[in-house]
Amino acid sequence: MSKLLESYDMNGTQLANRVLMAPMTRSRARDTVPDASTALYYRQRAGAGLIVTEGSQISVEGTGYLFTPGIHTPEQIKGWQAVTKGVHEEGGKIFIQIWHVGRISHVSLQKDGAVPISSVAVPAKGYSCYGYDEQGQPGPVPVSTPRAMTKEDIERVTSDFVTAAKNSMEAGFDGIEIHAANGYLFEQFISASCNTRTDEYGGSTMNRLRFVLDAVDAMSKAIGSCRVGIRLAPYGRLHGMHSFDDEENTWLLLAEKLSERNLAYVHLSDQESLCNIDPTVAAIPKDFVRKFRNAYQGTLVVAGSLTQETAEELVKSGVADLAGFGRPFISNPDLVERFRNNWPLTPFDHATFYGGGDEGYIDYSGYEQTAERALQEN
Ligand SMILES: Cc1cc2nc3c(=O)[nH]c(=O)nc-3n(C[C@H](O)[C@H](O)[C@H](O)COP(=O)(O)O)c2cc1C
């Protein structure tokens, strides 16, 4: 008996199975507005117990990459309404990942060429985002040096997150996932390797957790805590995050604090899949997930380099409640059906992950359609 394919009550949201489609930026939103292709892409993948959309910026200021969708204008909300309608018509559930990239941005992406913001005025050395180069052409550009956020900035960004959460409800989402992983704004505060502030948002572990916890509370108050999920990347090394002294304690204290908040879920992003692309990146230590599990009582999602077998093991052992899959969902829209029937998986193609049009986006067929076509051709 598969536990992975069993239904699951996620704090009141009923999921058909325990397979979660992990958030994946696809950079195909021309004007930052989800379109008909976006709606079809997610509808095709509605067999997941829960879809988490690609990172969607809460404001112009929160943007780090051209062609990523937002959730702060009426046009964007309308675009997302078509997406959620399609997924719901197929019987699926969908959360939107909302993000602010902080210092992983460029002046060309900011209003009136403003400087991006972060916990401190230190750039993520060696990293690029996707903006306009000096010739005004879209492309990878080195991230700009940010300015340190004032207390007023922190309040304003928190309020932008609350507005985005409310917009997400208007767009028909079942909930939101706060992006606090992968070296973006919240991690720039959580990690002592980046945050060297001396006010109440820096220094002690609790001070570094203050911004994210206050933001979680503000959004929970606005839309209900059971609709709020959060993604973390303990031991993450993306975008200039490094190890720091009380690293384990920081993540476990955050687990404890989140445990008190009756959320939809906490989602751990294991960056293991990037270890061979970026040598500075490391996987989450194996025994750490268990420790996190002990500290956090609610629904726990783990994602990163899982196979059907390892995911099954993960949920059967009770270490996680839901298993997240990223890349396999790109090339296997019917991933859950393939698991159910032991059908083979179509390999993914890195070349079409980001940008471009419908190729590599909505042209992957389900296994049955592919098999049918092969029969007709023979
Ligand atoms: C094309 C692509 C885009 C991604 N975009 C995001 C994103 O927007 N937000 C996020 O939290 N993680 C993002 N990720 C990370 C995935 O959610 C996932 O954690 C990662 O792919 C590892 O899972 P996998 O081995 O099942 O692919 C992205 C990964 C890929 C491959």
From TrEMBL:
Write the record's keywords in alphabetical order, separated by commas. Oxidoreductase
According to the UniProt entry, where is the signal peptide? Answer: none
Q: Which Pfam families match?
A: Oxidored_FMN (PF00724)
Q: Provide the Gene Ontology terms for cellular component.
A: cytosol
Q: Which cofactor does it need?
A: FMN
**Presence of the UniProt keyword Oxidoreductase in the record:** yes
The yes or no answer to whether the keyword Oxidoreductase is present is: yes
Record-annotated NADH:flavin oxidoreductase/NADH oxidase N-terminal domain positions: 9-344
Q: Which GO terms describe its molecular function?
A: FMN binding; oxidoreductase activity, acting on the CH-CH group of donors, NAD or NADP as acceptor
Instruction: List, alphabetically, the InterPro entries matched.
Output: Aldolase_TIM, OxRdtase_FMN_N, Oye-like
- What family classification does the UniProt entry report for this protein? Belongs to the NADH:flavin oxidoreductase/NADH oxidase family.
Q: Which PANTHER family match?
A: NAD(P)H:FLAVIN OXIDOREDUCTASE SYE2, NADH OXIDOREDUCTASE-RELATED
Designated name of the protein:
NADH:flavin oxidoreductase
